[in-house]
Amino acid sequence: MDPDLRQRLVAAGVDPAQVGDPAEAWRRLADAFGLRATLLDRYALEAEARGVAVADLPVADRRKMALEVLKARDPLLELTGGASGEQVEIVPYDPGWAVTFARWAERLAAALGPVAVRIEHMGSTAVEGLAAKPVVDIMVCVPDIEDEASFLPAIEGLGVPLRSRETAHRYFRPAPPDPREVQIHVWQAGSPEERVHLLFRDYLRAHPAARDAYAAMKAEAARLYRSDRIAYNEAKTGHILDAVEAAERWAAATGWAPGRPA
Fold first, then answer.
1. Claim to verify: residue 48 and residue 16 sit in the same structural domain
2. Residue 171 sits in a domain of what CATH number?
3. Which of 255, 238, 135 lies closest to 202 in space, CA to CA?
């Protein structure tokens, strides 16, 4: 067992030598460490219980564990589309991503009208010089996330169906065989989620060293989890949480606010 996982189990009150039910052990980790208890920990605990390597866990079992972890974080999670099956591909920064965003922002603004309080280019493709998956992430902020009738038909009318529903988030992406050129994230205007995603983006834009460290970490995560997109995202969690803590200090020092980069 990885020494770091062993240490965190002890801190969570779990004996690493007698883990017992790996699902229950993960839940205790999550209680103790929040988002820093990742799907990768769940994989490791399951593999340890079975006496196999993580790589030998069946794909179907890993998908069940992924849903288990996601539902533990948000019991209201609903998946309205299956897994994409696409491999993780990280490519060099492409200036064309900004063009793609602008084109889609115009379409979204026309479709949503005043319901779109904010439309922003977010994620790695929004940071000049940062390698990324070649999919443009778009943030749409609305007055009321529960009022789906005000935004869901308009977004789906652009050919981007709803793929998952969480308490504070709605996620849309094209369905195969349409290419995944964009993915659209809807949050409530003024929400913590709106703020933290814009903060992380602007922090990376303003700090090339942090941008490059994030790029290196993503490249390694993609190498390890190329065929498991959820595990790839989970592998980034600790790095992102650390970067957000640094970004909060930067925001406090500079007066950063959403829509007003320092």
1. yes
2. 3.30.460.10
3. 255
